[in-house]
Amino acid sequence: MSVDHKALVTTLSRFARLLPTDYDAASALDGLVCGVTEVLGLSGAGATLESEAQPRVATVSNDRIDRIQLVATIPMRLDGTEIGTVALYGEPTRHWSADDLEVARVLTDLATGYVLNAGKRQGQQRLTDQLQRALRSRVVIEQAKGIVAHHRGITPDAAFELIRRHSRDHQARLSAVAHAIVDAGLRV
Fold first, then answer.
1. What DSSP line would sit under 129-160, residue for residue?
2. Residue 1 contacts residue 94 (beta carbons within 8 Å)
3. How far apart are CA 11 and CA 58, in angstroms?
4. What are phi and psi of 95, to 5 degrees?
5. For residues 11, 12, 15 and 20, what is the CA-based torsion angle, rounded to 10 degrees?
6. Residue 137, Cβ neighbours under 10 Å: how many?
7. Which domains are seen in the chain, by residue range?
8. Sheet containing 69-78: which strands, arranged edge to edge?
9. Helix locations, the chain, DSSP H
10. What is the pLDDT of residue 1?
11. Residue 38 to residues 26, 41, 82, 132, 156, Cα–Cα distance (Å)
12. CA dist 155 to 135, 141, 149, 167, 188, Å?
């Protein structure tokens, strides 16, 4: 069987439209599995990440299921990092041309990049969220220092020491004490 060029263009277009969205690894793997199955006219395909127990498998029609045999696996690898494998399922009479395997490799590499980028994006989002929380907390702490300094007639550094001591003495988070000072009028 030869490569279905129209299906290849459609698959590449789907991947291109996915890139600017807030995609996850599952979306990239689903695109790979469906795309490689369609482009190469396979009985089915599956992708397994090393971190997953179950592979993602494209739907296989019931009339072909008894004739499937695993005929090729392609590692999902980028810059020496292997994250999983793609399994290509075909009927026993299938002949794998060099073009078939090259297209499968290209789609696998594309999906591998998407999966790795999805992980990086999630990590960046977690870091952004942590930094945002830290910034909000710092703003409240600075407000609390100003309130305590004003009420006590002391420096902001001395006010911070009072807030920190209160936090330790009462086994409370510093940000919780600062919120209590700003929002509830706690005096330290």
1. HHHHHHHHHHHHHHHHHHHHHHHHT--HHHHH
2. yes
3. 14
4. -110, 125
5. -140
6. 16
7. 5-127 (3.30.450.40), 129-184 (1.10.10.10)
8. 56-57, 44-49, 81-90, 69-78
9. 5-18, 25-40, 98-152, 156-169, 174-184
10. 59
11. 18, 5, 25, 43, 66
12. 22, 14, 6, 18, 14
Q: 73: Cβ–Cβ under 8 A, 6 or more apart, which residues?
A: 85, 86, 87, 88
Q: Among 36, 38, 157, which Cα is nearest to 103's?
A: 36
Q: What is the pLDDT of residue 85?
A: 86
The structure tokens listed for 84 are 């999983």
Q: Can you tell me the distance from the alpha carbon of 93 to that of 95, in angstroms, rounded to the nearest whole number?
A: 6
| Residue located via tokens 């890139």 | 19
pLDDT value of position 64: 57
CB-based contact 88:104 (threshold 8 Å): yes
The residue to which tokens 């600075």 are assigned: 142
User: Is the pTM of the predicted complex or chain greater than 0.90?
Assistant: no
